[in-house]
Amino acid sequence: MSRVVLWLGLGFLWAPVLLMAGFAFSDARQPFVWGGFSWRWFVALAGNARLLEAASLSVLVAGGAATLAMLAGGAMGWVLARQGAFRGRAVFGALAAAPLVLPEVVSGLALLLLFVALERLTGWPQGRGVLTLLLAHASLGAAYVAVVVQGRLASMGPLLEDAAADLGANAATVFRTITLPLIAPSLAAGWGLAFLLSFDDVVLASFTSGPGATTLPLLLFSQLRMGATPEAHALAVVMLGLAVAGLCLWQICLRSKNRVS
Fold first, then answer.
1. Is the pLDDT of residue 260 over 80?
2. DSSP per position, 64-85
3. Rounded distance, CA 92 to CA 86, Å?
4. Where do runs of H (alpha helix) occur along the chain?
5. Which of the residues 25, 155, 192, 199 has the least number of beta carbons within 10 Å of its own beta carbon?
């Protein structure tokens, strides 16, 4: 019975995705009408400069935001897990976790007001664009990275770090040789999570991006108001294929590592 429920749940999740993927290979102009097998919309996608430009911008913004989030979130997670009780720790922890519980509409409006106030006071940033979008996504991703890193540090305890300090290693050496290698998987996981959150975001981008910073989700959302297009289906299939290829490559690397060890 449990297997039946499991397969029903998987079917409910994957049926819309597979249906959309199937119609991406239809020759018909209408999005959900089968007109025979064709690669027409993949060829049209390759020649759609607007979609490709938005996709490349989304990848660049997501990569930069994930990197900033990894650095800031890793530092916050380390402080919360290793600095013990200090004055203002509860406030610091609440502020670090606030983006996790606040609705994105509230966060987006608050960031918009912050950027407008900074521009009036200092002249920076000049309008909304790629920079404000990157900072907004980094602020959201940092909260997720902090939670992951804090959990990793709390689970492994300070035993190895204390042992290295007892053997004469200074704080920088302990962090470089002990702490950083141990939290590297959590930093990588946080980076990937922050990348996906940034790449998929619509709400924050709606508040903090400008006319010259239209990301792929914003472009697709604006196009879907007039109805789904077959090119969007083709783009979804390409993204799905890249995700599956990445997962397969990851599994191959894990199996190779297990065989070597």
1. no
2. HHHHHHHHHHHHHHHHHHHS-S
3. 10
4. 2-23, 40-46, 49-82, 89-101, 104-122, 130-156, 159-166, 171-174, 180-200, 203-208, 216-224, 230-260
5. 155
Q: Are 118 and 124 in contact (CB under 8 A)?
A: yes
Contact 137, 217 (CB under 8 A): no
Q: Give bridge partners of residue 26 from the DSSP assignment.
A: 37
- Token digits of residue 158: 């300070």
DSSP annotation of 26:
B
Amino acid at 115: F
Closest among 97, 78, 111, 89 to 142, alpha carbons compared: 97
94-104 residues labelled b (16+ CB within 10 A) or e (exposed): eebbebeeeeb
Long-range residue pairs from 29-36, CB within 8 A, at least 24 positions apart, any chain: 29/230, 31/227, 31/228, 31/229, 31/230, 31/233, 32/228
pLDDT tens-place string over residues 17-48: 888 888 889 888 877 788 888 999 999 989 88
For the question of whether the overall pTM of this predicted structure is more than 0.70, the answer is: yes
